[in-house]
Every structure is written in structure tokens, then in C-alpha cells.
Fold this protein.
Amino acid sequence: MSFKQFNLHTQIEAGIQALGYTAPTPIQLQSMPAILQGKDVMGLAQTGTGKTAAFALPILQRLMSGPRKNVRALIVAPTRELAEQIHEAIGGLGRATKLKSVTIYGGVNKNAQIRTLGQGVEIAVACPGRLLDLADQGEIDLSHVEVLVLDEADRMFDMGFLPDIRKIVKRLPVKRQTLLFSATMPEDIRKLAREVLNDPLTIRVGAGVPVSTVSHALYPVEPHLKTALLMKLIERTDTESVLVFARTKHRTTRVADQMKRAGFPVASLQGNLSQNRRHDALSGFREGKYQILVATDIAARGIDVSGISHVINYDMPDTVDAYTHRIGRTGRAAKTGDAFTFVTPQDRAFVVDIEHVLGEKIERRTLTDFDYGVPAPAGSGDADRPRHSVGQRRPARVSGYAPVKKRGDSVHGAPRPSGRRSGTRSLEGFSAFRSSSKTR
Ligand code: AMP
């Protein structure tokens, strides 16, 4: 199978070649014929499947004919990182077409965005808030939009963007093509899809199941030993780029600082950073200046670094869906990757859920010459207390879970459940959990 079958414009084919794509991915094969015909599509696909090109290529093809310098395609994405990434993908695939795209998101000065819009662009890649701002101020004309893409719709829902999306849709011409992509399909997204899509073709590519090119392993560990284990594991493993997920902004900064002091080339990425520091962290990670990036889920949304060889869950994600999203950062487009997850005794029930979704048991590993018996420093009060009590099962497929922005550091303010100090906790359950472990 090659891209020839789509009869794309030669200038677009040149872009595909320049990016080194030789064959379409499954989502491209399944969705592009319908999108090229102008049909609405609902794609259940996670990041890493090639969904950006699946919508970008047909958009470029459509825009090759017709007027230029009007915004004719609008792509709405949850985060600025994802918006930048889509913009870059369009830039790469469409280099020879001379079609222009602009990114629109908050947290940066709007003048540059307004200037670019004034020069005339055909594609806008936008986060909802700033887009509405500019539309309200009359700085962007949405009356020529022919194609709307809602990318990572479930994340936009998590982040509380659904009302904004409805406002945006109201401003668009009724006669348009709409494409909606989402890794999961909670009821609110289904409802949105019913509202905005017209007789859509539904495509499902590996939805809800982590990319199969990734191998998974669990590292049982007591909470206070996580950072030491992380450093040892990275030292002992042959890695390219390593993306480490921690639960809160505070933990993200703390882990990165500890690693930096120990001499690791590490940066951190979390929502409180200035745009400059985010940019330094991301571009430094992409270019290899930092081999390790410690991030929160929300900050890591949309990170596309092709050489991510390892994703390490320093903290368990909150939901199986979030696990899937994190793991989607490695093993992208059929490259292989490893996903390591640190599990504390409190995470046990959640592991069962993940294994259920994966349909297999995940290998337990322990590191040789790592001292798992070091007690927690007295009064250390590590912040790794569970958000769910032991034995309380989180549902395997969670839809409509709490908005991500409501989590974050506020967890520190929550009352500490009694008897959960790591220094005093019994290790009994932990040993049982480790009994099936394999030493590495
Ligand atoms: P996405 O799911 O759109 O974020 O894409 C994941 C990664 O796959 C990106 O790095 C793309 O550049 C890459 N990619 C997309 N389509 C192809 C393809 N047909 N062949 C090889 N790589 C691809």
C-alpha cells in the first residue's frame, strides 16, 4: 500500500516523501478516502497512530484549489504543544504547496498571531480560548471555514473546553466538513459528535488499547524509593529519550531537581512554566540537550518526539485512559518503546484494571543491586499517599472523569489518610505483590 492510491497533488506527495512516510498507517488507510470525498469522520484513535496526517493530507488536497488567504480549515486542539505539533506537521507535509497555517493559543502575546492572520493564511490551528478571543475582537474571520477538525476531543472535554467548542461551532458556516478525533468516547463526546457531525463515518484504530509496539513492565517499589529507583533504572538501561510522568506540578519539579543535582541531563515540564521555559524544555528534549523530561500529564499532552525510547510512570496515572495516552508517547508510528511503571502497594487494584484492558499480565521486574529495604527517613511524609484507598477499584474504562485541571497540586492540600506514612506501613502486601517479579 502506498500513498499513490489517494491521487494527491504532486506537491503534497513531495511533502510525504520529504517526511519519509512510505506507507499509510491504518488510520490513514481507513479515513483518508472518506475525508477526501468530503465526508464527516469520527476517528477513535490515540496519538501515535498517524492521525494528524490522516486529516492534514486531505485538507491540503482540498485547499490546493479555491481561493487563498482565507481561513478555510480550522483545527481545534486542547494544548499549545499539540497545536504547534499539528502546525509543524502541516508545514512539513505542505511545504511545497505554499499553503500557510497559523497557530493561535493563549499565554503568548496575541499581536504576532494577529499579524500572521492579517497576511493571509488558509489553515488555523487553535486552542479554544484564544480563538474565541480573536473571533470576538474581529481579528479572525471564520466565515470561510470549510473544514473543522476537533482533535483530541476527550482531552478538550477533560480540560473543560466543551462550552467554548460549542461557541466556536456556532460561528462556523453550517455547510462544512467536520472531523472529530478522540482516543476515548465518553458520553459527553458522543453527544458533541451527534451535534456537530453529519452522518459520519466512524473509524476505530486501537482505541483504548496502548500501542502494540510498546512493551510494558512494572517496577514495584515503596514510595520513598521512587527517585532512587528512577535514577538507577535510567543508568542501567539503554535509553534514547526518556519521558517521566509524575502526578503533580510540585512532584514534577522535585523529581527533576533531584535528578539534576545527581548530574542527569533533565528538564521538567509543567503548567506553571513560562512560555520560554516550556519552549526550552521541549526543544531541548527534542534536540537531545535533555535526555530526560519529567512532566505532568497535561503538560506532556501532544509531545511528539520521535526518539522517545522509554516512558516511565513515576506515579501511576489516574485512569486507564491516561495510561494509554502516556504510553502513546513512545512506540510512535511503529517504532518500538518500553513503558515502565512504578507501582506502590496502593496501586495494586489499578494494575489489575490495566492488565484487564491490555488482555495480558504485565511483567514485574526488580533491579538487582538496588536496596529495596531502605526505610523511609523519619518524618519524611512523602507525598505519595494514595488518592484511592487500598482495595478500592478504579473502573477500567473511565469516562467523564474529573477534569485534569482540577487535579494538580491541590492534592497536597487534601487530608492525609491515617496510617499511610510510608515509614510505618507494613511491607506485607508489597512482598506478596513482588512475588511474581523477575529480576533484571
Ligand atoms: P500522530 O499520531 O499524528 O501524532 O503521528 C505520530 C507520528 O507518526 C508522527 O511522528 C508522524 O510524523 C508519524 N507518521 C504519521 N504518518 C506516518 C506514516 N505514514 N509513516 C511513518 N510515520 C508516520
Remarks:
- The longest strand covers residues 214-220.
